[in-house]
Amino acid sequence: MKVKKKALASLASVLALSGILAACGGSGGKNESATNTAGGKAEEPLQVSIMTILLNPTPPADDNVLKRAIEKATNSKMTIQWVSSNTYTDKLNVTLASGDIPDLTYIDNPFSPVFRSMVQQGAFWDVTNYIKDYPNLTSKISQTAWDLTKMEDGKNYSIPRPRPAEADSFFIVRKDWLDVLGMKVPTTTDELYAMMKAFTESDPDKNGKKDTIGFSANVNPTDMGSLGQIENAFTGVNGNWKLVDGKMVYAAFLPEERKALEFLQKAVQEKLIPEDFASMKGTQVKDLFKAGKAGMLTDKAGTMNDYFMEMKKIMPNFKETDFYPITSINNYNPKGPGFAGVLAIPKKVPEAKMKRILKLIDTWMNDDVFAIQTYGFEGTHHTVKDGVKVVDTKKLNEDGGPDFNQIVYVADPYASSTKVFFPKEANDLYKKIQDERAKNSVADISIGLYSPTAQQFLPEFQKNLQDLKTKILLGSAPLSAWDDYINKMKNDPNVVKMSQEITDAYKKRTGK
């Protein structure tokens, strides 16, 4: 009995703390849990059904203390349907087809045929003209994410689940090797090649052996893999399409694509990349860098510890800041899409309730409310040491803290570059480089653009292109074979029609 009373007292203290958190919540720091109606009466909690993805084996209990605290802070009562990630897409499609759609539904692919079709049929709310009224939706979700989740009519029928857009995977180099060789961080493809050559031939690790390579990279069966960043640096394209004189042009038809193949063909001949690049797996690419045998790879700065711990064992003098992100090559570096899935509200939900759901999301994104699932409660899920929250991840996971990220999430804009456990000098460096990259980063503007012809034609075309590229790099086909194929295909009816459809879709969506 004493144990039970102690547990109840502990729960009461947790709920009391959640009330304190709620009192600090709401847009602009106002209390959203005690919203008054025009008549002065307290607004009833929002009853909202939610369906979202579950990445863990077991979902949080319905009376979970974190869930109850979030509900208190957002003045809501949530009925959450958690669906395993293994079956989510199938379950979502069945749910959408049934018409019995929860009030707030996670859409893993906002451009799937099913969701796109239902949007066209008017099944979901167009939130374009509403989001300006909710400050967190505009300030904590990047404009890139809003732009790239627009449907073909240029409107937003969902709320992006934010991720950092800047500092996407790009070239990471061994700064210590550059220092040994007296070289600067490259900014052009010519400088990049010179660096790769020096890393391969000038004994940058000073072990007296020729056992290093310039760039640890591979290709995939249907794309250029990590070698694709070389292509992108030449073409200035993130993705497969570039706007040229008002028309969308597939990257393979750009003259810079041939220059990229010349660059790569020469790099293969001079063994500046692994000889087995065509069969290497992504893990093998990383392992080569971790072993101290490669001077460059593609990744995000925020993955530094994944490499550093292994490299430090082999090279005691290796510093965190020797894992060095390149700012840009030929004034190009890639920007991420800024989202991972979206949240959609079906049109069957009345407008007044739809606004309250937007308000729920907006309030949930407040720092103090989002902190509930991020850190939990002091003394239960975290302690504070020297002013820093030290999270008991096991306990937080048991109470489902990370699971609630699959509903509402707030992305640290520097999350791809920095980590709280990185040394200050590494975080300062990576943040500075990210800020520089943001000045000329390029997003994939083709995300979500719809072309019926591309749906049918593009997969086979991409496979043929990649097969030819790999053959050219391996030396089993001459570079002239590229010219012949491109000249043949640029006037192919499918290519012409696909390009026109993508151009029309881009213009319609952007209004340009």
Average pLDDT reading: 91
* Top-tier CATH class of the largest domain: Alpha Beta
Determine the structural class based on helices, strands and strand pairing: alpha/beta
CATH names the topology of the largest domain as D-Maltodextrin-Binding Protein, domain 2
> Count of DSSP E strands?
14
Give the N-to-C terminal Cα separation.
70 Å
Whole-angstrom Rg: 26 Å
The amount of helix comes to 40-55%
Q: Largest sheet, order of strands side by side?
A: 2-1-3-11-4
The parts where pLDDT drops under 50 for at least 5 residues are: 1-34
- For CATH, the homologous superfamily of the largest domain is named as Periplasmic binding protein-like II
Q: What spatial form do the alpha-carbon principal axes imply?
A: globular
Q: How does CATH name the architecture of the largest domain? A: 3-Layer(aba) Sandwich
Could you give a short account of the major beta sheet? 5 strands, mixed
Tally of separate helices: 19
Taken as a percent bin, the fraction of beta residues is 5-15%
The tally of domains stands at 2
